[in-house]
Amino acid sequence: MASYQSIAVGTDGTDTAEVAVRKAAGLARDTGAKLIIVSAWHGQNRALLDPPTADASVPVMGERNAQEYVESAAKIAEEEKAPDVETFTVRNPAANALVDVVKERGVELIVIGSQGVHSLAGRVFGSVAMEVLKRSDVDVMVVNTESVK
Question: Signal peptide position in this chain (predicted)?
Answer without folding.
Answer: none
